[in-house]
Design brief:
With 152 residues, this protein is mainly alpha-helical. It contains six helices and three strands; from the N terminus they run ααααβααββ.
């Protein structure tokens, strides 16, 4: 019976703890950042297949899911980093021949693989003392690194 439940495609869910929502860091987040944090939580695969630290959600994917602009979602990612809810573990890079990679994130509320507990950096946040923010590289629609091409 138990194996049937696992293979039945049960709903994926995430929980939002009151201990998190009662922090000054949570209260200072924008509404877009709060919803983005939930989307990032949905990317976590759970404690058995713990992918925390390798969670990836591109700016474009997040903007599409939330129905907002790229600029708005970029600010939401920066807000989550500044308040200590997420940390960039691997910096993304623009693609060469279509192979771009977005940032990889750690959710500080959740333990990394082989650790017992998360770092909970958001508990240490204070007004005016934001954590470091890693910004995504600028959008480059032409694919050139500042060089101009001769047009004929």
């Amino acid at each position: 019976m138990r194996n049937k439940l696992k293979s039945s495609g049960a709903e994926h869910f995430t929980k939002l703890m009151r201990s998190v929502t009662n922090t000054p860091a949570w209260r200072s987040l924008s509404s877009h950042a709060k919803v983005l944090l939930l989307e990032l939580r949905f990317e976590w695969k759970g404690p058995k297949a713990n992918n925390n630290g390798c969670i990836s959600l591109s700016t474009r994917q997040a903007a599409d899911r939330l129905g907002v602009s790229l600029q708005t979602i970029s600010k939401a990612f920066q807000d989550l980093q500044a308040k200590g809810f997420i940390v960039v573990t691997e910096i993304g890079h623009p693609g060469v021949h279509g192979y771009a990679r977005c940032h990889r994130y750690e959710l500080t509320e959740i333990a990394l693989p082989h650790q017992r507990e998360g770092r909970h950096l958001y508990r240490q946040w204070k007004v005016g003392h934001d954590f470091d923010v890693v910004k995504a590289r600028a959008h480059n629609p032409t694919g050139f690194n500042g060089t101009s091409r001769i047009r004929t």
